[in-house]
Amino acid sequence: xxxxxxxxxxxxxxxxxxxxxxxxxxxxxxxxxxxxxxxxxxxxxxxxxxxxxxxxxxxxxxxxxxxxxxxxxxxxxxxxxxxxxxxxxxxx
Length: 92
Known about the structure:
single chain; 92 residues; mainly alpha; 434 Repressor (Amino-terminal Domain); Cro/C1-type_HTH; Lambda_DNA-bd_dom_sf
């Protein structure tokens, strides 16, 4: 069995694919899972998982959410203040 070295969590604000990938990798490694184990568990190709973690290649949102859900990662959202709606200003 391979030993997995945990990586640190990125900043909570995600604005780039590389930051989302860093979050996925941090959660995976904190769980002690290898790329292979995680790919098998969430039923995606190892290369797809690796591309997601590095923010390279073309990974669909559907596959990204499949991996995140498999690792227990949940995202929240925030509406910009000038967009209206919850937390924003409503146009009259």
